[in-house]
Automatic annotation (TrEMBL):
<dbReference type="InterPro" id="IPR005819">
    <property type="entry name" value="H1/H5"/>
</dbReference>
<dbReference type="GO" id="GO:0000786">
    <property type="term" value="C:nucleosome"/>
</dbReference>
<feature type="region of interest" description="Disordered">
    <location>
        <begin position="88"/>
        <end position="113"/>
    </location>
</feature>
<keyword id="KW-0007">Acetylation</keyword>
<dbReference type="GO" id="GO:0003690">
    <property type="term" value="F:double-stranded DNA binding"/>
</dbReference>
<feature type="region of interest" description="Disordered">
    <location>
        <begin position="1"/>
        <end position="29"/>
    </location>
</feature>
<dbReference type="GO" id="GO:0031492">
    <property type="term" value="F:nucleosomal DNA binding"/>
</dbReference>
<feature type="compositionally biased region" description="Basic residues">
    <location>
        <begin position="15"/>
        <end position="26"/>
    </location>
</feature>
<dbReference type="GO" id="GO:0030527">
    <property type="term" value="F:structural constituent of chromatin"/>
</dbReference>
<dbReference type="Pfam" id="PF00538">
    <property type="entry name" value="Linker_histone"/>
</dbReference>
<dbReference type="GO" id="GO:0045910">
    <property type="term" value="P:negative regulation of DNA recombination"/>
</dbReference>
<dbReference type="GO" id="GO:0030261">
    <property type="term" value="P:chromosome condensation"/>
</dbReference>
<dbReference type="GO" id="GO:0005634">
    <property type="term" value="C:nucleus"/>
</dbReference>
<feature type="domain" description="H15">
    <location>
        <begin position="27"/>
        <end position="100"/>
    </location>
</feature>
<dbReference type="GO" id="GO:0006334">
    <property type="term" value="P:nucleosome assembly"/>
</dbReference>
<protein>
    <recommendedName>
        <fullName>Histone H1</fullName>
    </recommendedName>
</protein>
<keyword id="KW-0238">DNA-binding</keyword>
């Protein structure tokens, strides 16, 4: 005779977790937009190094020390999207400049008519 094991006592239903108040998004341009702006203002032929890019962002009031990883991720994503071209180095390090081909394609689409 196999006796059925007694069912474990059902745990009392937990109260639904209250979500913490959502932080409002900060107004202003994203890190990627700031990076593109800084690279476009540069007159360097070989592009802007990551260190120079961070200095330009810091001069513009962006807290680079606090958001260092965000800067690196944004640079990598801009390279993969094709907005920036990496002229030296690998990953987030090295030098970067704007992709002329993509800039021309964007200008062509802006007209609209």
């Amino acid at each position: 005779m196999a006796e059925a094991a007694p069912a474990p006592a059902a745990a009392p239903p937990k109260a639904p977790k209250k979500k913490s108040a959502a932080r409002p998004k900060k107004a202003g341009p994203s890190v990627g937009e700031l990076i593109v702006k800084a690279v476009s203002q540069s007159k360097e032929r070989s592009g802007v190094s990551l260190a120079a890019l961070k200095k330009a962002l810091a001069a513009g009031g962006y807290d680079v020390d606090k958001n260092n990883s965000r800067v690196k991720i944004a640079v990598k994503s801009l390279v993969t999207k094709g907005t920036l071209v990496q002229t030296k180095g690998t990953g987030a390090s090295g030098s970067f400049k704007l992709n002329k081909k993509q800039a021309e394609a964007r200008r062509g689409n802006v007209g609209g008519s």
